[in-house]
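Need tokens for this chain, all 130 residues.
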Amino acid sequence: MADLENIVEELSKLTVMEAADLVKQLEEKWGVSAAAPVAAVAVAGGGDAGGGDGGGEAKTEFDVVLASAPSDKKIPVIKAVREVKAGLGLADAKKLVEGAPATILEASPKEEAEEAKKKLEEAGATVELK
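Here are the structure tokens for all 130 residues:
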């Protein structure tokens, strides 16, 4: 049990980007997907869990890209970015908004990506799902 507690402690020290990279590496190594169960069913039906885009299959993962944020809406957009991307500090959120276009979320399930897009657009940002 102490080993599990040590693992949890070490994982808690990861940044959001490091945690996302860890998830991708584990998905590749184990041939699984950490996406929502509905998306996992769609991927499992294809028979090739780890190979490429899947050709004609429906896209199940999306990148949320902040295309732009008007200067008069910068503060609400920064707040929305921090809501959408958990664990992101104020300075990092500000850099993302000022550096637009910037990817806010990578390989997110469709529902999560659409919710993030909605929050960012309500704050005044222009957002794309890719």
